[in-house]
Inverse folding.
């Protein structure tokens, strides 16, 4: 089964570009499934269903979304193989910029948009810097020059990745992404596979549900700002 | 390059600082090499940033080679572009093979959904029978190297459309400077002046270099986009999507792009623009339906339209300036 991780900040256009790319792949009659990881709620499963694409939703709720992702993704891959999928796409939002669901030897795609501002490539961490493919969206609503400046910033932040410009509305550029999805890494299982980067870690009283603010409540892995 | 200290690198490759900046690295001692610097970064710091020594070194090498690539190839020269037909949405063979030469203006006409965007996408992707249309694109009569598809300095198509807006929170001058910087222009000040004065020639109303980019009017924005694309964008082909009501001098704008040796493709139904081109590509049902050469009679019509356009422009100017049309016959 082909497997890839698609990540990107909320509302950057992940679902739109996946849908457009899968539309291109339609004539190939591949069995494609999408694993949508989100926090509280999503309607994307309905969106996928409307396009005739199978999807499963995982909501992390009060857990760290990336930790939730990594604790489930191996089972998702097993599930996909069990059900005879040709391609399985994991879609997750990078909620803190230190997040990254990318796995070694599995095609990793990051989706960002032109509206985020030119400092964004710098601010987004491993999700962008360690990706194999970076999809830049919303290029139809900003100027050519801003697109060129943004693309350069992305190139500087990740000089190794393939950069694609995809329009999530018209589908322009989706063909290239379709080719990447179709030729994503083949996997048999993720057991023993390694994350590209360690995940943000925390183990403090607030992880366990503490809500009261104050020094005496701060237990465990706590880091303090230097203010003076 | 491996043996150079950061200070030496900075002297030859000023953009080396972008590498540190984009990775959130602070350099305090520039007398060490980049490798020494990276291997001396504390593990905890890298862990916080989600980085690793090895991958950072690899990124640095790739960064330098991609920036050097940008620096070297200032001119991406395209003499001709050939579109070899594939099939339309119903699988019918497309008519034609169209060749467009440098400095030509070609119009693309057809209703919404007829396949104009797809045609553009094929050109942009330099399709080689690997898109739904099965079209092939030749550059200078040969199949272009595949590496161009992903190379920042070989982006074939620059786009301009009615829907585009400036979103950056900077002044016009700083914006053009940023663009010039990203194009590795040696003497940016001269270029900045050129772009802004050129934009002011195209715009109905002039603007100051210190104007915030986002407060330009629609016409001013469009004028700046055209001037900037003509003078600063590396892409040899410019695709313009419906800018008919933009409030800029359309004839001058086309001339400017063509004078920079760009190939100009315009998706338009504006007769003034459509007839300024040498050819019109008619797109129907996802395919190129026919290619019409602008005839002598049509060129005569164009003269008439230009005359009408002048009259309209003059009326508009008068009304803008608070005058009346009372005394015009």
């Amino acid at each position: 089964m082909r497997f890839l991780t698609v990540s990107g900040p909320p509302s950057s256009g992940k679902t739109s570009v996946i849908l457009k790319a899968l539309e291109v792949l339609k004539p190939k009659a591949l069995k494609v499934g999408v694993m949508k990881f989100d926090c509280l709620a999503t309607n994307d499963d309905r969106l996928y269903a409307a396009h005739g694409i199978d999807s499963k939703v995982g909501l992390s709720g009060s857990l760290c979304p990336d930790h939730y992702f990594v604790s489930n993704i191996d089972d998702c891959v097993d599930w996909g193989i069990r059900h005879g999928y040709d391609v399985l796409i994991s879609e997750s939002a990078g909620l803190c910029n230190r997040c990254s669901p990318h796995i070694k030897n599995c095609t990793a795609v990051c989706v960002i948009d032109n509206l985020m501002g030119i400092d964004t490539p710098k601010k987004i961490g491993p999700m962008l810097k360690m990706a194999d493919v970076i999809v830049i969206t919303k290029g139809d609503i900003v100027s050519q020059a801003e697109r060129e400046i943004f693309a350069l910033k992305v190139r500087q932040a990740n000089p190794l990745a393939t950069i694609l410009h995809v329009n999530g509305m018209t589908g322009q550029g989706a063909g290239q992404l379709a080719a990447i999805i179709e030729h994503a890494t083949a996997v048999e299982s993720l057991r023993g596979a390694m994350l590209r980067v360690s995940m943000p870690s925390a183990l403090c009283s607030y992880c366990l549900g503490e809500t009261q603010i104050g020094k005496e409540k701060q237990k465990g892995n706590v880091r303090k700002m230097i203010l003076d | 390059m491996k043996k150079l200290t950061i200070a030496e690198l900075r002297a030859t490759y000023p953009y080396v600082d972008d590498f540190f900046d984009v990775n959130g690295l602070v350099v305090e001692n520039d007398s060490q090499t980049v490798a020494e610097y990276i291997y001396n970064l504390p593990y905890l710091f890298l862990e916080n940033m989600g980085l690793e020594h090895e991958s950072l070194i690899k990124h640095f090498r790739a960064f330098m080679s991609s920036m050097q690539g940008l620096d070297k190839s200032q001119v991406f020269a395209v003499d001709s572009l050939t579109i070899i037909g594939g099939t339309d949405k119903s699988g019918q063979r497309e008519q034609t093979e169209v060749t467009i030469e440098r400095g030509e203006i070609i119009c693309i006409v057809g209703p919404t959904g007829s396949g104009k965007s797809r045609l553009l996408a094929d050109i942009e992707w330099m399709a080689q029978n690997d898109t739904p249309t099965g079209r092939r694109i030749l550059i200078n009569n040969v199949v272009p190297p595949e590496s161009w598809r992903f190379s920042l300095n070989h982006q074939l198509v620059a786009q301009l459309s009615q829907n585009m807006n400036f979103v950056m929170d900077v002044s016009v001058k700083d914006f053009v400077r940023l663009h010039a910087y990203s194009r590795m222009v040696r003497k940016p000040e001269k270029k900045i002046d050129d772009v802004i004065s050129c934009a002011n020639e195209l715009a109905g109303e002039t603007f100051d270099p210190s104007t915030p980019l986002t407060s330009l009017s629609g016409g001013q924005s469009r004028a700046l986009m055209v001037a900037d694309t003509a003078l600063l964008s590396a892409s040899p082909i410019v695709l313009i999507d419906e800018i008919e009501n933009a409030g800029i001098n359309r004839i001058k704008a086309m001339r400017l792009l063509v004078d920079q040796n760009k190939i100009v493709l315009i998706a338009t139904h504006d007769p003034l623009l459509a007839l300024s081109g040498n050819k019109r590509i008619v797109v129907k049902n996802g395919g190129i339906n026919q290619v019409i050469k602008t005839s002598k009679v049509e060129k005569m019509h164009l003269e008439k339209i230009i005359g009408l356009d002048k009259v309209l422009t003059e009326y508009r100017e008068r009304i803008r300036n608070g005058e009346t049309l009372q005394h015009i016959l």
Observations:
- Residues 32 and 264 of chain B are 49 Å apart (CA to CA).
- The two ends of chain B are 73 Å apart (CA to CA).
- Residues 296-329 of chain B form one domain.
- Chain B is about 40% helix and 15% strand.
